Amino acid sequence: MSSDHPSTASSPATASASATASSRGAVPAFQVMSVLQRVAELRAQGRDVISLCAGEPSGGAPSAVNRAAAEAHADTALNYTPAAGLPQLRAAIAGHYAHWYGTQVDPEEVIVTTGASGAFLLSFLAAFDAGDRVALASPGYPAYRNILTALGLQVVELPSGEAARYQPTPELLDAAEAEHGRLAGLIVASPANPTGTMLNRAELTALHAWCTEHGTRLISDEIYHGITYPAPGEPDPRGVSARELGTDSVVISSFSKYWGMPGWRVGWLLAPPELRANIEALAGNVALCPPHAAQRAAAMAFDDAAYQFGDLQVAGFAQTRAALLERLPELGWGPVAPSDGAFYLYAQLGTALGGFPDAAAWCAALLEEEGVALTPGDDFDAVHGRQAVRLSFAAGPDAVLAAVERILVFQRRHAA
């Protein structure tokens, strides 16, 4: 080829220089995962670390689930399942709604997902268009905000503080819509992460009615249902499902918490009729299917023994919660969210912050000096969470009370 006609192909160096990263991926890291990484590093060095940063029940899965998993892994034919999940698992999940809520669910409404996280992604993609506004409570689970942002949606955070018991209200939604414009979606979580607060039947009904009136899609995260601490005789002791109010809401749940199966990565959603085909199509494209063996095992989570196992775990959480609340005055933290359910304590550090500039620095020092891992509150609330922490008491009373002793030593050392 003549030198008068240079090639138009870019050289490798030129192509590399012009490549850029997508702005959609520029979301904050989920700090819990970063803290867990440091916990692993310290343990690898031989350090004794008490990890109270993640929502991981310590009791494992029900025995029937473990047996089914062993049998499934002995089977060499662990091929793809239908994108929406194994039929027997979808039917078992539908039966769970009749058992717990007295609500009839068609198995065709059930889409099995790769953990609740997969359900968030699929439902957000199916329900909203880029640029839509979606409201959620602050403080709240950071992955909602980060996934929505990555999908090009506008996050409208509702300042749901003490006065609103850390939950959305119709009044907060009215104010948000007046300021930002129409809300395409509302995400609620009850019990909530990180606060553990819950919506009672009247409160959830009011939010559902607001969403119906305003053409707003309600997405109800019910992953912590069953892990609640009701007073004797209190109605709806396991939590109120949005599915009890109609078929127009997306309902999301998982085997991770009540059944103690966080690493199995099996969750589900109940899809409204108009979203069902799109969600199933997206599921087949995004993940093909959830893990086959884990699905087969999860289908065994709905017998009487498995429910008894879950209730026994919850009784253990209640015992740990009571022991922690008894020691709370010694820590000097406050204000503290009510922790009606789930297994978290979310609190402002107050004077216990000492000379540290924020909770992130406080938590980092606590981990390095005393070997206790908590999660800083700015992961859940970038505005008011800088002096807050979340403590997971899922690890049990021995671990939590040992951690309290170490925290007290740390706070005395760094008292302002």
TrEMBL record:
GO annotations under biological process?
amino acid metabolic process
**What EC numbers are recorded for this enzyme?**
2.6.1.-
Q: Which keywords does this Swiss-Prot/TrEMBL entry list?
A: Aminotransferase, Pyridoxal phosphate, Transferase
One Pfam family from the UniProt entry? Aminotran_1_2
Q: Note the SUPFAM superfamilies from the entry.
A: PLP-dependent transferases
- Name any one GO molecular function: transaminase activity
What this protein needs as a cofactor is:
pyridoxal 5'-phosphate
* Gene3D superfamilies per UniProt: Type I PLP-dependent aspartate aminotransferase-like (Major domain) (3.40.640.10)
Q: Which residues form the Aminotransferase class I/classII large domain?
A: 48-402
Entry keyword Chloroplast: no
What's the family? Belongs to the class-I pyridoxal-phosphate-dependent aminotransferase family.
Task: Supply the name of the protein.
Answer: Aminotransferase
* Species for this entry: Galactobacter caseinivorans
